[in-house]
Amino acid sequence: MMKAFDWQLHKKGYIPMSGQIIDASLVPAPKQRNTDDERQAIKDGKSAQDIWPDDPAKAAQKDTDARWTLKIGGKVRYKNGKPLPMIALPVFGYKSHISIDRRYGFIRAGEVTSAAHADGRMLRHVIAENSSSEVWADTAYRSGTNETWLADRMLTSRIHRRKPKGKPMPRATARANATKSAIRARIEHV
């Protein structure tokens, strides 16, 4: 069954039949200034009203769903053939997981989680129906479970392959990843 949005696009001639690209973006939230006890209560899953019952105005301003994560950014830099340390930036907030149509760039599905949530766990939640069988994503989405799940639904995985630990990237894998990146880059514009 088509969703109302998909049906309206279909009537205009936009038929999502060229595959889908999946990615996640970090969305920063204002940092919270909590005491150790308040922080522990948030980790234990208590709501803001439970933590600050006597101060409803304060409870309304507190974000108990956002979490911290480390964003390791940029390309690996080398000096004298050895990789330099990567810079890890702490980020407090959320992740926006989306799936777009490869050809038209429309967002087909999306979910929001805390920043600490693993990207790979969200694959099955953002796969849209009524599309081509090809699915592009970065290495964060590659796992045996996801590959099996895609194969069971007759979807073709175009997910990047990881570099073997302690070994150089095989040339064929690097070329395949580069080809996939040329297509997957489209989601960065969305």
Features:
6-stranded mixed β-sheet; two-stranded antiparallel ribbon; Transposase (Class II); DNA binding; transposase activity
Structural write-up:
It contains eight helices and eight strands; from the N terminus they run αβαααβββββαβαβαα. The protein is an alpha/beta fold and 190 residues long. A hairpin with a 2-residue loop joins strand 3 (78-79) and strand 4 (82-83). The chain has helices spanning 4-11, 36-43, 48-51, 56-61, 123-126, 144-152, 171-184, 186-189, and strands spanning 20-28, 67-72, 78-79, 82-83, 88-101, 107-114, 134-137, 156-159. The radius of gyration is 20 Å and the shape is globular. The protein has one domain (18-189).
Name the helix and strand elements from N-terminus to C-terminus, one letter apiece.
HEHHHEEEEEHEHEHH
The termini sit apart by: 26 Å
- Determine the structural class based on helices, strands and strand pairing: alpha/beta
Tally the helices: what do you get? 8
Largest sheet: 6 strands, mixed
Work out the radius of gyration: 20 Å
Give the helix level as a range of percent: 25-40%
Choose one word for the global shape. Answer: globular
Sum this structure up briefly.
The chain has 190 residues and is of the alpha/beta class. 30% of the residues lie in helices and 26% in strands.
List the helices and strands and how they pair.
Layout: H1 4-11, E1 20-28, H2 36-43, H3 48-51, H4 56-61, E2 67-72, E3 78-79, E4 82-83, E5 88-101, E6 107-114, H5 123-126, E7 134-137, H6 144-152, E8 156-159, H7 171-184, H8 186-189
Parallel strand pairs: 1-7, 7-8
Antiparallel strand pairs: 1-5, 2-5, 3-4, 5-6
